[in-house]
Write a structure and sequence with these properties.
The complex is a heterodimer of chains A (about 375) and B (about 300). Chain A has helices spanning about 20-25, 55-75, 95-105, 135-145, 205-215, 250-255, 315-325, 355-375; strands spanning about 1-5, 35, 75-80, 90, 110-115, 150-155, 155-160, 165-170, 170-175, 195-200, 220-225, 235-240, 260, 270-280, 285-290, 295-300, 335, 340, 350-355. With about 375 residues, chain A is α/β, with parallel strands linked by helices. Chain A folds into 3 domains: about 1-30 and about 50-80 and about 355-375, no CATH class; about 90-185 and about 330-340; about 195-325, no CATH class. A 7-stranded mixed β-sheet of chain A has the order 11-10-12-13-16-15-14. A 4-stranded parallel β-sheet of chain A has the order 5-4-6-9, covered by helices on one side. The radius of gyration of chain A is 38 Å and the shape is elongated. The two termini of chain A are about 50 Å apart. Chain B has helices at about 10-15, 35-40, 65-70, 110-125, 150-160, 175-180, 195-205, 220-225, 245-270, 285-290, and strands at about 45-50, 75-80, 85-90, 100, 105, 130-135, 140-145, 185-190, 210-220, 230-235, 240-245, 275-280. Chain B folds into 2 domains: about 10-30 and about 80-295, 3-Layer(aba) Sandwich (Rossmann fold); about 40-80, no CATH class. Chain B is α/β, with parallel strands linked by helices. Chain B has a 6-stranded mixed β-sheet, with helices on both faces. The chains are: A alpha/beta (about 375), B alpha/beta (about 300). Strand 2 of chain A pairs parallel with strand 10 (about 230-235) of chain B.
């Protein structure tokens, strides 16, 4: 354990120690006239020395101490290497708590939810929603002191893993609890929904897109004439006309909207084009347009089998979906196979700031100082 | 306004006063001190009032001529003649306005007033006449001797109006004292005892046969000299100022002051004056208890 100062410039506040010194500096009390009838027995002896003297030095010391503590508080003292060997038990939300406590049986451990912020189990309910388990494990490992042992309680099938085994700095006790299969349904990723605006020529491409959505088993595309504006939703907008893009497209793209435009739509002059999908014969099918206003996809040719033979291909719906919707990385695994590795470098722990204790001491000292300064027994010193 | 004025005598002091008596120092044969009790019956030369007869009154006190006229019994009462008169000499010079720093609202004059009121209360309790003579910058303020409650009220009124100012009055202004204070009267002087003329007056009164009691009132600062720093001290009567450092002159002052007190005690003792020194942090009646309390055994 060692002490360090996070903001040493705060010691400049020690200059404020001059204030109480000035306040307590004894005034020149020779100026105070005192009636004294027994003057004839008094001899005249002016003070020979002009030493600096202070009134009420206990109060002065108290005030100096108060200001010094304030300066120390400003300098933010902190302790590094505070020993902390309390075991931690992290439980993935969704695990039966009673079963976990039976399995682990560590009474004096600190129980945490393996969720964002690591809330304490006895204070908060289980957080909802999927958790990025590998990322959370790494974060928890990095934020725990090196001496603390970690137990992680997970169900038999864990969702939210990374493609690799988590590599941590400590040996983790990996406690797997059998979970009913009903709770372990894989998530189904819905097919993209289309919203199509077209002109007369573009209408001829609709039948291919309708066929594609049928193959995806998704809802039918919502089609309309290009005079009707796009709806404000998160569907994939398809622009099958020769007209330029609507004026509000840029704002919609900024919000994260996806757009697929026809080959006849004019391309801005400053656009960069990158081929994205070529068919088996090397014919460009879809390319990506990048402009300062945003990015979108573009059919490289009109939606006709003559220009785009891939339209008639049996794999076209799947290939198109792979372009439009990247396949999710595998996230589910059997927990028993995902025991984290060790070997990562331990992280340096942040220093423990002592501000709260200092604040408490300052508050107590301040109350004491007020009490002392306003006590009725305070006597005016002669 | 009178209701707001604090009483001169605190309640606890008043209760302690009951056990005190103002004893003259010497028995005076000519005025019949031994007759104190019989005189308090109300028989005397000066007619005061008629009052209705009550069982227990002596038959010879009934006014039979009045009974003949009115068919009722009346008793003649007369002004009780007091055997002695108590004269309260109060020093009201400017030095009496001095107060301690620790208690600035309690002047020496306030304590002196309370002491005088206590003495008047004692005199009234035992039926003696009492009068007040205040000596200050305004000369001599005199309240002629009298007794009973109205006299006490007059005394309190005068005391409340009294302010400390000026110096001890010169010799020629003191003639009313000699006119009023008869021989063998009890004279109680209340003051700080710093004025040489005041001590001289006490000695002369004692020599002239008056029974003099001298009560000296000192402040706590005069006794303890608690000053540690340099201060400018001022004599309230002469206006002299003196710059001095409390810590260095303290020992010397205390020694010289003690010597002066010894000299004063010796002078008063030699003159046969009962005397006592009271301090502002004492109870008001403390000097009275020491001088007139039963334990002191100073009874006639």
């Amino acid at each position: 354990m060692s002490l360090l100062w996070l903001f040493p410039a705060g010691f400049l506040a020690l200059a404020a120690l001059l204030l109480p010194l000035l306040i307590h500096l004894a005034r020149r009390s020779e100026q105070r006239i005192i009636d004294f009838a027994a003057l004839r027995w008094l001899s005249a002896k002016p003070r020979p020395r002009r030493r600096i003297r202070f009134d009420e030095w206990p109060l002065l010391v108290l005030r100096l101490l108060l200001l010094a503590l304030l300066a120390v508080l400003l300098a933010r003292p902190a302790l590094t290497g505070v020993p902390d060997t309390q075991p931690r038990v992290a439980v993935l939300p969704g695990v039966d708590l009673a079963a976990a406590q039976r399995a682990v049986g560590n009474a004096d451990a600190q129980w945490l939810w393996l969720a964002s912020g690591f809330p304490k189990i006895d204070k908060t309910a289980a957080p909802q929603g999927p958790q990025p388990v590998s990322s959370l494990l790494r974060e928890l490992d990095a934020s725990l002191p090196a001496d603390a042992t970690l137990t992680v309680v997970v169900p038999s099938i864990v969702d939210g893993l990374d493609p690799q085994l988590p590599q941590l700095s400590r040996v983790v006790r990996w406690q797997v609890l059998e979970q009913s299969a009903a709770a372990n349904k894989p998530a189904v990723i819905a097919a993209p929904e289309l919203q199509i605006r077209h002109d007369e020529v573009g209408r001829q491409g609709l039948r291919y897109l309708n066929a594609v959505t049928s193959a995806w088993r998704g809802p039918k595309p919502e089609t309309a004439d290009d005079t009707i504006a796009f709806g404000n939703d998160d569907k994939l907008h398809v622009w099958l006309t020769a007209k330029p893009l609507p004026a509000d497209t840029s704002a919609w793209l900024q919000r994260g909207g996806r757009l697929l435009v026809d080959a006849r739509t004019p391309i801005p002059a400053d656009a960069q084009r990158a081929p994205l999908w070529r068919d088996a014969n090397g014919v460009l099918v879809i390319e990506q347009i990048s402009t300062p206003q945003g990015q979108w996809l573009r059919w490289a040719a009109p939606l006709q089998p003559a220009s785009l033979p891939v339209l008639l291909d049996a794999d076209f719906p799947n290939d198109l979906r792979a372009v439009l919707q990247a396949a999710p990385t595998p996230r589910r695994a059997l927990a028993a196979t995902m025991q984290p590795n060790t070997g990562a470098t331990p992280y340096a722990q942040p220093a423990t700031e002592l501000g709260n204790w200092l604040l408490l001491a300052i508050a107590l000292l301040f109350l004491f100082e007020r009490w002392w300064a306003s006590a009725p027994r305070r006597r005016g010193q002669a | 306004m009178a209701a707001l004025t604090p009483p001169l005598i605190p309640a606890d002091v008043r209760s302690r006063l009951r056990s005190l008596r103002l004893w003259p120092q010497r028995a005076s044969g000519s005025r019949g001190i031994g007759a104190h009790a019989s005189r308090s019956r109300g028989a005397g030369l000066e007619f005061a009032q008629y009052r209705a007869y009550e069982p227990g009154d002596e038959l010879r006190q009934i006014d039979w001529k009045l009974y003949a006229r009115s068919d009722r019994f009346f008793v003649r009462e007369s002004e009780r003649e007091s055997p002695i008169t108590v004269w309260l000499l109060l020093d009201a010079s400017a030095s009496m306005a001095q107060a301690d720093q620790a208690r600035p609202d309690w002047q020496r004059l306030d304590a002196a007033k309370a002491l005088v009121a206590c003495l008047a209360e004692l005199a009234m309790q035992q039926g003696d006449a009492f009068g007040l003579i205040a000596l200050g910058g305004d000369g001599v303020q005199l309240l002629p001797a009298g007794n009973r409650l109205r006299q006490r009220d007059r005394l309190h009124l005068q005391l409340h109006a009294l302010k400390a100012a000026g110096q001890w009055p010169p010799q020629q202004k003191l003639s009313p004292l000699w006119e009023r204070i008869a021989s063998n009267d009890l004279v109680v002087m209340v003051g700080d005892g710093f004025d040489a003329a005041g001590v001289e007056l006490a000695e002369r009164l004692a020599k002239a046969g008056r029974d003099v009691v001298h009560l000296q009132l000192l402040t706590v600062e005069e006794r303890d000299f608690p000053f540690r720093d340099g201060h400018r001290f001022r004599d309230p009567e002469t206006g002299d100022e003196l710059l001095s450092d409390g810590a260095t002159v303290r020992g010397e002052y205390l020694a010289r002051f003690k010597d002066a007190q010894h000299v004063l005690d010796a002078r008063l003792q030699a003159a046969g004056i009962r005397h006592d020194t009271a301090y502002l942090d004492e109870a008001i009646d403390a000097p009275l208890q020491r001088l007139f309390g039963r334990r002191s055994g100073s009874g006639a």
